[in-house]
Amino acid sequence: MMRRTFLMAMPLLVMACAKVPITGRSQLNLLPESEMMAMSLSSYQDFLSQNAPLPASDPKVARVRAVGEKLAKAATTYLDQAGAGDRVSGFQWDFNVVDEQTVNAWCMPGGKVVVYTGILPLTQDDPGLAVVMGHEIAHAIARHGNERMSQGLMVQAGGLALDVALSQKPDLTHDLFLQSYGIGSQLGMLAYSRKHESEADKMGLVFMAMAGYDPRTAPSFWERMAAQGGAKPPELLSTHPSDETRIRDLEAYMPEALKYYKP
Question: What is the sign of the dihedral through the CA atoms of 109, 92, 199 and 225?
């Protein structure tokens, strides 16, 4: 019992002082990033094997990769300058597009990004695409999925120690990972909290600004997303704050984001 208690407490002690870049919020992540990276790579490969990505010759892929590479470079530069380069240590960025009309995009640990063709018309242009990709990349860098998985494991593993939950309940761990990143909608999705969404919005604005995209395009993109949703919001909006709250918060943070914008 003492060993199990120690194993549960050890990750808490290690991760309790972690700070989210840009916002400075303290966060508690119970799962080692090495575990998250391993699950990410496996799940990403499984997803692409079941959902063939568009070929590199497709203009949509070229566009997504061009924007994604700029965002990745900008995010890495910011984190290095802020002394938080470990947030992307081990990331091997990869950008793919799947021909699926779902309005969605996601980024898993390690920089594995998928954009669905259904969201591209709403982006309208490269700055619009940078809004959504910057937002999803921010979730991964902020390790929001780790936080959600940690909460889910604590609840659904029935009080088991973390090491036992990971080793004896691999299916539970795998399902929670997919839910945490919005993959496999049949499983349901663990909602990002409002604080996670607010953080991803702010971080995304900074990353897109540093990448050379005007952050002032963000409010109009989210307005288009909300208008497109109608009675049933797109998957990407299903767990997000209200339109009014998001726009208000984006506008409030805009002066700070613009400090990083150099056209």
Answer: negative
Determine the Cα–Cα distance for residues 82 and 139; give it in Å rounded to an integer. Answer: 18
Q: Where along the chain do its domains lie?
A: 31-258
Q: pLDDT for 166-223, tens place per residue?
A: 555 556 555 655 555 555 443 344 455 778 888 999 999 999 999 999 999 999 999 9
Which residues are marked as active site?
A: 136
Torsion angle of alpha carbons 196, 250, 76, 141, nearest 10°?
A: 10
Give the integer Cα–Cα distance in Å for 157 and 177: 14
pLDDT digits (tens, 9 = 90+) for 111-130: 999 999 999 999 999 999 99
- Burial of 103 per CB tally in 10 Å (0-12, 13-18, 19+): buried
Residue 196 per-residue DSSP state: H
